[in-house]
Automatic annotation (TrEMBL):
<protein>
    <submittedName>
        <fullName>Uncharacterized protein</fullName>
    </submittedName>
</protein>
């Protein structure tokens, strides 16, 4: 019963994150702005292309798209962590750090494998019996939502077993 409740809670949190992304796009579209403002994300000071950037790129074929995706998956050993730096492009063309801004929210799409704090610290779960062999790609959704500007991105991680 406890496992089902945790799963339901996790699914509810995942649904809220997806709704937040949809609301960001809808608010921007209603305001006459570009519907897909993108947050730039750095991991250990390296720019990582997330889903938002990759969706806007053109690739010669699926193989090229997958190669670019794989280059931007962050590898994280169990029980280790990395710091995200989240940047928002202002109208003047410069990026502003919004990592710890009150309007920036983070959501792990696989909370049993990966957690994220309100200041953007991503931590892989420690090795445990229940997660043995449960490596694989997981993601963090980042949403920055203010009345004047909304933006998002989704960064992928590979958690080593």
């Amino acid at each position: 019963m406890l496992h089902i409740n945790k799963t339901a809670f996790s699914l509810a949190k995942h649904a809220r994150a997806l709704v937040a992304v949809a609301v960001c796009s809808l608010q921007a579209a209603m305001a006459g702005e570009q519907a897909s403002e993108i947050l730039r994300v750095r991991v250990q000071n390296r720019i990582v292309l997330g889903e938002a950037e990759l969706q806007n790129r053109r690739f010669a074929d699926n193989e090229a798209a997958m190669a670019e995706f794989r280059r931007n998956v962050v590898t994280l050993p169990r029980n280790s962590s990395v710091q995200l730096t989240v940047e928002l492009l202002e109208r003047g063309g410069r990026y502003v750090d919004v990592t710890s801004h009150a309007a920036t929210e983070y959501q792990s799409l696989s909370p049993a494998k990966l957690s994220v704090s309100s200041d953007g610290r991503v931590t892989a779960a420690p090795q445990s019996e229940s997660l043995m062999g449960a490596g694989g790609d997981v993601a963090i959704v980042v949403v920055h939502d203010k009345p004047a500007q909304s933006a998002w991105n989704k960064i992928f991680f590979r958690v080593l077993p």
